[in-house]
Design goal:
Length: 563
């Protein structure tokens, strides 16, 4: 399971080499050497003499990997000898950063500019910041930054208005220039139609894409094109913002598709695109039979789609991530042409890999691991798991209540409680493994060398920091578990009566989590050197424990009053 709040950024550098695979391999080796990133795709093109590389990771790791790749490309690619069908002006032609999860565009821009500065200053390469990272309006457009290409770069660099954002104003003859940007995540999304007509698929694409279609006088197909005062065609906008598209026929499947690029899924989502295409296709006498995602998709896009389609059914959205993805796949027909495999299509799942976590084990496997002679997992992980089960019981009662016959008018209220309970459950499940990770950090710190005074100082500092972290994790369990009482109490009061005992059991489990986690806070606090930190966190823990005992009693009184 990936860390819930981990920030992820995608990087899609384009290198001006698409023929020599040894050169490409040396560049991608630099990326793969960086811990915290995963190489997702390498797409070389001989005609364009250009390779598009895709990798994902934490922001700092991505910046490091991108810099190393740009450096290696500058050493291996000589732009004086380069030719290809695609516009280009540098060995690393473009290098955009894309926010994937738990990171804003504003934050991504800062990382892009940090990368641009590092390339310019340390590699002596002229760098232009484009799209969201641009410092001025005209440089937002990549085509403007790259105008004149490599052949016109020497003259362009001498113009004051084209002084690079970072790096020299003199041409680096072998490396050229690089455009570093921050842009939104692009999803390539195809809508399957029950027709073989490319023309009809194109008509549907024009209906929905932002650019729309050319306006004509009289007959919309053959009439004279209407032009503006500059002589440019007047366009009739389509219905979806931040969407590009065309229609085509796919011989392999024997159907026509609307091929769409969703350039900003925060503006127009997958599910909104699908439903709009269904509506527009129906108006033209066609049916949408399904859809396909080409390449990768962020997890949030899939879970948002699952929630959207559940809400349309007046169903609770407080269900598992796996269930939300299943609903999204079935609702949008993502398995129409071939099976949709989340582990191969969702970025976060690819990045997580196959490392087994405690929470991935069976119930029996978890118990066996706990009962072994190893010191971890221990009481902290077990406490977190008890809390997760307690929160899960509250979520269960909310989900059962949301679709009880005759309670249709209040499904949304119960769905909201289920969603809250689900968040507490997921956080506590994350802490099951993180408590063991915290213990391992302490063990690793104790193994550090202590030959010199500098070694001892570094070791002592690492032990202190690891011990504090081992205190903060169970304290975080206490806070999260206590907060989950709100959902349990609401379900004890208003949930389906037949399951009121489950809310009571949930309260008991959550109380046990808080009490157990506090024991872990206290045992680790005894070892920390910062005594003020220890006293403060124990005082806060005692307050949470006191409130927990009271909250459990209140819930049990409600439950017992209904039994």
């Amino acid at each position: 399971m990936q860390q819930m709040n981990q920030q992820l950024v995608e990087c899609v550098p384009n290198f001006s080499e698409g023929k020599d695979m040894q050169v490409i391999k040396q560049i991608t080796d630099e990326i793969e050497a960086v811990e915290g990133v995963k190489l997702l795709d390498v797409d070389p093109g001989k005609a364009t003499n250009r390779t598009v590389v895709t990798f994902v990771g934490t922001p700092d790791a991505v910046v490091d990997a991108a810099f190393r790749a740009v450096k290696k490309a500058s050493e291996l690619i000589d732009m004086r000898k380069h030719s290809g069908a695609h516009p280009r002006f540098g060995a690393t032609d473009v290098c955009p950063l894309v926010p994937v999860s738990n990171i804003s565009m504003e934050e991504t821009v800062e990382y892009a500019r940090k990368l641009a500065k590092k390339i310019g200053e340390e590699l002596n390469i002229s760098v232009y910041c484009y799209e969201n990272a641009a410092y001025e309006e005209k440089r937002k457009n990549l085509a403007e930054c790259r105008s004149g290409e490599y052949e016109g770069l020497k003259e362009k660099l001498q113009k004051p208005e084209w002084k690079p954002d970072f790096g020299p104003s003199q041409l680096n003859e072998t490396a050229g220039a690089t455009a570093v940007g921050a842009r939104d995540f692009l999803v390539a999304y195809n809508i399957n139609l029950n027709t073989t007509s490319t023309r009809r698929a194109n008509a549907l694409a024009f209906d929905v894409r932002e650019k729309g279609r050319v306006k004509r006088k009289g007959n919309p197909l053959t009439g004279e094109i209407v032009k503006d005062e500059n002589g440019d065609p007047v366009m009739i906008p389509g219905s979806l913002k931040a969407v590009k598209g065309i229609g085509w026929f796919i011989e392999e499947y024997g159907i026509a598709q609307v091929s769409l690029n969703l350039t900003n899924i925060s503006i127009t989502s997958l599910h909104e695109t699908f439903d709009e295409c269904v509506k527009k296709a129906d108006a033209r006498g066609m049916r949408v039979s399904g859809s396909e995602i080409v390449g990768l998709v962020p997890l949030k896009a899939m879970t948002d789609a699952g929630k959207y389609f559940l809400k349309k059914q007046n169903r609770s959205v407080g269900v598992s991530e796996k269930e939300l993805i299943k609903i999204a796949v079935k609702s949008m027909g993502l398995d129409d042409l071939y099976p949709f495999k989340p582990e191969e299509k969702i970025i976060e799942y690819i990045l997580a890999g196959k490392e087994e976590k405690l929470v991935d084990k069976s119930v029996a496997g978890f118990a066996d691991e706990t009962s072994s002679e190893l010191p971890a997992p221990g009481g902290g992980s077990v406490s977190a798991y008890m809390g997760a089960l307690g929160a899960a019981l509250g979520t269960m009662v909310a989900n059962l209540s949301s679709h009880k016959r005759g309670w249709d008018d209040c499904w949304e209220e119960f769905s909201d409680w289920a969603e809250k309970g689900r968040k507490y459950q997921e956080e506590l499940m994350y802490l099951v493994d993180e408590d063991t990770n915290a213990f391992n950090k302490i063990m690793e710190a104790f193994k550090m060398p202590k030959k010199t005074e500098a070694d001892k100082t570094a070791r002592d500092k690492a032990i202190e920091e690891a011990t504090k972290y081992a205190i903060e994790i169970p304290f975080r369990m206490m806070q999260t578990a206590y907060n989950s009482f709100e959902a349990l109490k609401a379900m004890a009061e208003t949930g389906i009566t037949a399951s009121v005992s489950d809310a009571g059991v949930g309260a008991c489990a959550v109380r046990s989590c808080v009490m157990g986690a506090f024991l872990n806070v206290k045992i680790n606090a005894a070892e920390v050197g910062d005594r003020k930190f220890a006293r403060d966190i124990i005082a806060r823990g005692e307050e949470i424990q006191k409130k927990t005992i009271k909250a459990e009693q209140e819930i049990l009184e409600i439950v017992n009053g209904k039994l």
